[in-house]
Amino acid sequence: MLVSYKWLKELVDIEVPSKDLAEKMSTTGIEVEGVTSPAAGLSKIVVGEVLSCEDVPETHLHVCQVDVGEEAPRQIVCGAPNVRAGIKVMVALPGARIADNYKIKKGKIRGLESLGMICSLGELGISDSVIPKEFADGIQILPADAVNGDEVFPYLDLDDEVIELSITPNRADALSMRGVAHEVAAIYDKAVQFKEFPLVEAEKKASDVIEVAIESEKVATYQARVIENVTIAPSPQWLQNLLMNAGIRPINNVVDVTNYILLYFGQPMHAFDLDKFDGKKIVARDARDHETLVTLDEVERELVADDIVISVADKAVALGGVMGGAATEIDDQSKNVVLEAALFDGKSIRKTSGRLNLRSESSSRFEKGVNVADITVAIDTAASMIADLAGGQVLADVVSAGAVETSPVPVSASLDYVNRALGTSLVYRDIADIFRRLGMEIAGDEETFTVQVPRRRWDIRIPADLVEEIARIYGYDKLPTTLPKEDGTAGELIASQTLRRQIRTVAEGAGLSEIITYALTTPEKAIEFSLTPTTVTELMWPMTVDRSALRQNMISGMLETVAYNVARKHKDLALYEIGKVFEQTGDPNQDLPQEITKFAFVLTGLVAEKDFQTPAVPVDFFHAKGILEALFAKYSLDVSYVATSDLAALHPGRTAQIELDGQVIGVVGQVHPQLAKDYGIPETYVAEVNVDAIEAALSPVKPFTEISKFPAVSRDIALLVDRETQHQAILDAIASANVKRLTKVSLFDIYTGSNIEAGKKSMAYNLTFQNPSDSLTDEEVAKYMEKISAALGQLGAEIR
User: Fold this and answer.
1) Which of 210, 326, 406, 517 is least surrounded by Cβ atoms within 10 Å, i.e. has the fewest?
2) Which of these, 322, 432, 424, 300, lies nearest to 367 by C-alpha position?
């Protein structure tokens, strides 16, 4: 919410520096983001009158003689299409500072001397989105009564100060100037000064021209007024200035009044061209599935049954609470106007604006709430202003349907409850004074009291809300403070915290650096590296499309980090993350997703750089696997790696799923080359492991075992197997022999040369045997080897 300080001072009689007001508001419950002035950084910009304007042949330029209040006019070369003799303009004199601290100097353009610059609003730093349509492609034309040589800032209210409020959902009453005025008046114990807008009605009744009906439970009330014989024209300069400082583009006098009411009352309002209606009955109803409407931004919207539409002759003319329709908008030929003021269901408006990605000032206010007591006052004020600014005739009476309760809401509390909550010793007189400042009636005694809460403060409904109001106005800085009396308790890490710290130690010991990535991603990336993807949990109203779904893997987010670094020439990366993924295994409409802790890492680039005596060593599958083996070895977990090609995001020949006790707990492999190309990264290896599964599999710490005094015996065995036979299959076959004294199996050679028959490979293993209580004999070892050879024979291996 952008608040004009000039306008605020018209509503509340205060004369304090804007920064002091901002600090006071921030300490009483409404945070102020900052205070700015449109004129900040601008200088030496004055009013000038164009005395003559001559075209420069074969160019778009004009040579202007401009009176800036000096003895002689200045010659200025200007390229604006709307410059002409007889208008008042903004002139930046030599030495002036305009937007971006640009300094104006004397110069020549096409050989013509130019002693200054005729400025547009954009050149003064005003956003293109709020510049009036008539001046969007040219210079700003000032009012005819502007005095030559005067600074331009007062004429456009550029010398105003704009206070930006950060409105929390519970204080949506401050989304209006009247709401802010009530707040400031309470802070400084002043009275609000709201201007009266007298309304003169014609004898002709509005009900003779239009009818209103409600056919939706999402519409509480709908009110309409008719103004005939208006003249569409630009708004007066004061109204245009006010809207621009609030971040709204001036359109014309009728539309600008509706936006003024939006800012003043916080009541969204819309104006229809009555002559463009196909009937006289206006119906607020639910939309029909696949019904379409072209909104004011010239976009055709497909509607659903949850939307609210305003229809005439059963044809939608506006998207209720969000945006009007293009077919009935006010234009330069409009003569008869229908004003709309309504109360729509905030949840429905939020769903509609979120689904259509169509946020507006109106939808924002309906979502957070509006003051139902001011709906009729707002539409009457708008009618009065249009009659004044557009010369229209207001037809008698408001045509309405539905009704809302506007009487104050009684809320009671006790003084003991207040003082106990705040630690104060307030008496009834103190509390009565606070609610007097807030503009609320109070009745009670030294024990209990009841406050009549006006409808403009719909956030106050329970005793705790009254306590908050008392604390705000009394002053948080005045509340007594005490130190906690409870003794501290000794803390310790829970098992999962201990495990995460130990995993960090292993990862960082392997040279990995920790990062934190977003838990939100796109629906596609959410399941990109998931072995068993579940229903994706998507946000109903995401901030951006790239952050709209909860992740089911962490690798895709880490690859974005890799891509970011690679694009900046950081190519040797070893990163890890411990975080949550979210899997939806139940009903998405009823059950929350399950949170699972995972450990993931990515490796790319070189492990060791090239120097004068050693070659460069790039990362490969076995570097990634080695980190995992170090982790599993720390906890004595017997995991197996099973080759898989089921995951399209990983290389089909360099990927394995990690299994623990028959359960898949993770995956390790190379990012598929095509996907790596899509991300813009080089050859990259990744892994992801379920930390919760590791924690569940942890066994008690093994007791110390003495090192055997007896020597170990080793034997080598070479096998001829099919090329498709996996290393893990051979290990499983050796284990199936159940040789108790076998303590270690190591693969030390793989050979597929010309001496091996086609389709075969030779794999050589070293087997280590040891008896902790006695020395092994050759006969015992020979028996062990026979059992192992027999088990390998069942696999189809040939002992060489």
Assistant:
1) 406
2) 322
